[in-house]
Specification:
The chain is α+β, with helices and mostly antiparallel strands. It is 28% helix and 21% strand. It has one domain.
Length: 198
């Protein structure tokens, strides 16, 4: 309680660097609209980007968003190799040491488990049946992870091994309706984290 008898509420903690980067990335991708393929982003320390691009610090200051010492910036990876599946793509990736983490955005159609019973054997027909299901929902996921802690302790302890998932539904397409959690897409989290292992 404060001196005047009122209960004082602590200031909300600033989001951790990975969550902040993921939220900024999610809003950026949302501005592009729906019906897009997967996109992959390297997460690099903002301080390293500012060192290589001095104008970036001025831009962030002018936007009223100065970079913190642990902030991460997303750098989109273009020209990805063509593969049949997202799993194949992730299985081929490796990152240089300066990449602190990685993020993936992907759109999915989700249905209740019972909708997957008695589907046609043909994959195209099954996809059409699922899309036509009355409870089908289109979602966009942002999955972001940082490198696991290094055995010698050289990885930044504040960020090592962090993970976050964001989920936006097309039916509720609003920045204030984005779900945040760690276990929304455990398979994608594990696959992304594996691309950062030495």
């Amino acid at each position: 309680m404060g001196h005047d008898g009122r209960v004082s509420t602590p200031e909300p903690a600033a989001p951790r660097p990975l969550l902040r980067a993921a939220l900024e990335l999610e809003r950026h991708v949302a501005a592009r609209g729906w019906d897009r393929g997967p996109a992959l982003f390297a997460l690099v320390p903002t301080s390293a980007l500012m060192a290589s691009e001095p104008g970036l610090a001025d831009h962030l200051e002018a936007a009223g968003d100065p970079a913190g010492p642990d902030d991460l910036s997303a750098v989109e990876q273009e020209g990805l190799p063509a593969t049949d599946t997202l799993e194949d793509l992730l299985g081929r990736l490796a990152w240089p040491p300066e990449v602190a983490g990685v993020a993936l955005t992907v759109e999915r159609l989700v249905v209740p488990p019972e909708a997957e019973r008695d589907l046609p054997a043909d994959p195209d027909e099954a996809a059409r049946a699922l899309a036509a299901h009355p409870d089908a929902a289109e979602i966009r996921l942002v999955v972001a992870v940082t490198r696991p802690p290094s055995p010698d302790g050289s990885a930044a302890a504040a960020q090592a091994g962090d993970q976050v998932c964001l989920l936006r539904q097309r039916a509720h397409d609003s920045d204030d309706a984005v779900a945040v959690g760690r276990d929304i897409a455990p398979g994608l989290v594990a696959a992304l984290a594996a691309t950062l292992e030495d």
